[in-house]
Design a protein that fits this description.
By secondary structure, the protein is an alpha/beta fold. It folds into two domains: 98 residues, Udp-n-acetylmuramoylalanyl-d-glutamate--2,6- Diaminopimelate Ligase, Chain: A, domain 1 (3-Layer(aba) Sandwich); 121 residues, NIF3 (NGG1p interacting factor 3)-like (Udp-n-acetylmuramoylalanyl-d-glutamate--2,6- Diaminopimelate Ligase, Chain: A, domain 1). It contains ten helices and 14 strands. Helix 8 links the parallel strand 12 and strand 13. Helix 2 runs parallel beside helix 3 and helix 5 crosses helix 10. It starts with a strand and ends in a 7-residue tail after the last strand. The protein binds zinc ion (ZN). The site of zinc ion (ZN) has 5 residues, from loops. Belongs to the GTP cyclohydrolase I type 2/NIF3 family. InterPro entries: DUF34/NIF3, DUF34/NIF3_sf. This is Nif3-like dinuclear metal center hexameric protein.
Length: 257
């Protein structure tokens, strides 16, 4: 069975995702060091206890996630759920890889790029071919969808992601230009409105989104934080499997948020 050293994999991931280039509010890359050789990786959206337990049960050597650990502003003490998660990783020599904003932003493997594929959006591109992005951290993408009403776009998003989204705004509005940012990017709706698109798609919703949608005429779709961020980590896992020939398994531990 193929294997790769933890150090070599960590370096390849850092280079591929250009982790040094993006300022983030958590560390990106190898967050907890485990055994020094990797044959089998479990990927998932979040490094929850359930994902760790599943990795231990499968005798995996590493987990690789979008939502890792050690967030800025979190309480640093090792108590409660945080202690249990870290204790599980250490007790089983499990490597923990986390990639947050670098995985959102990657032009091919990233969450925004992969969501666009799923939803059939054609990203607008700069002269050099890179996708147009804007807003905080340059994380919002912009492009075109097949023209339809906002209600119809909501139905398409729902069937592509397997979950009914929250759709705010005029259901009959015609939509052909869209902006999107996966996860909890409801605060970036104003940047999307300023860019002039017909609708904005993200994962979660907050109270102001309702009023913004009604008062600006820009449609808003909250399609699920977890649901919109399942695809980047899968694409990254597939890239790792191709590069090193090791076993990579995605576990979709569902989260309704
Ligand atoms: Zn997220």
């Amino acid at each position: 069975m193929n294997q790769v050293s933890t150090r070599q994999l960590a370096e390849w991931l850092d280079t591929t995702l250009q982790t040094q280039r993006i300022k983030d509010y958590c560390p990106n890359g190898l967050q907890v060091e485990g055994r020094d050789t990797i044959r089998h990786i479990i990927t998932g959206v979040t490094a929850s206890q359930a994902l760790l337990d599943a990795a231990v049960q499968r005798n995996a050597d590493a987990i690789m996630v979008h939502h890792g650990w050690f967030w800025k502003n979190e309480n640093p003490v090792l108590r409660g759920t945080k202690r249990r998660r870290i204790a599980t990783a250490l007790a089983h020599d499990l490597n923990v890889f986390g990639f947050h904003l670098p995985l959102d932003a990657h032009p091919e493997l990233g969450n925004n790029a992969q969501l666009a594929r799923r939803l059939g959006f054609e990203p607008d591109r700069n002269d050099d071919g890179t996708p147009v992005n804007f807003g905080p951290y340059d994380l919002v993408w912009r492009g075109r969808c097949e023209p339809c009403t906002l209600a119809e776009l909501g139905r398409r998003v729902g069937s592509a992601l397997g979950r009914e989204p929250l759709v705010l705004g005029d259901a009959n509005k015609l939509v052909s230009t869209v902006a999107w940012c996966t996860g909890g990017a409801q605060d970036m709706m104003e940047a999307a409105i300023d860019s002039g698109v017909d609708a904005y798609i993200t994962g979660e919703a907050s109270e102001p989104n309702f009023h913004l949608a009604n008062e600006t005429g820009t449609g808003f779709i909250a399609a699920g934080h977890h649901a919109t961020e399942r695809y980047g980590i899968q694409a990254l896992g597939e890239a790792v499997a191709r590069e090193f020939g090791i076993q990579v398994e995605f576990l979709d531990l569902d989260n309704p948020i």
